Amino acid sequence: MSNVGLPVEKFETGQSKKPLDDQKAGVIARHLNKLISRLIEADEHIDPREFDLWRGMTAGSTAQGSWQNRKGNIAEDLIKGFIKRRIHSKGLLAKEDNGGAVAVLTDGRTVRYGSEPDIAFYAGQNILAAVEIKGGIDTAGVLERVGAAIKSLSRAKSENPDAVTMLIMYRTAVTEQARQDLEAHRNEIDCWFTIEDALNREETKQEIFRRLGI
Q1: Amino acid 99: pLDDT
Q2: Any idea where the domains of the chain sit in the sequence?
Q3: Fewer CB atoms < 10 Å away: N or C end of the chain?
Q4: Dihedrals φ, ψ of 136, to 5°?
């Protein structure tokens, strides 16, 4: 919550003697509702015990690390699901293979959902577009994540200089240094977007679809 400008620690620990005002309480409630809704949407099968696990995720550093890893996985699942739904809704899907990890489109392109890159579009063996999704939220590791994305996307550019390369990551993890690194590697990364904008901002959605040709 602190990472998004809504610190609640002093209320949780009893340090604050004043209750939350209605406006701030409403903002926090809406943000928590959004996070919980996305966690639920990302799970194919909901186990009621998961709610207890989520409530206790701040118990220690080990749990925090596991939670951050899971959050990264959820971000990846959300973006991949967002692309898959677009392909389905536009009638572009011809068939799926390998449990949905590979999709053949009606125009002959192939989409692979994997890692490095997380999403890749191909025409035969020629890569047309590569998307890296970095769902970490800790600012301490952002340069490492950006560096890994640059490395992965540069491989796509080396295979096909005309390939579209795209990075999608959380807004809270985009530090000033990360912005500078992204700007310095324009040759490797054609564009980058925040996960929040990709999921919630119609203009960003359409720009992503346009660049991927879907």
Answers
A1: 83
A2: 2-55, 75-212
A3: N
A4: -70, 150
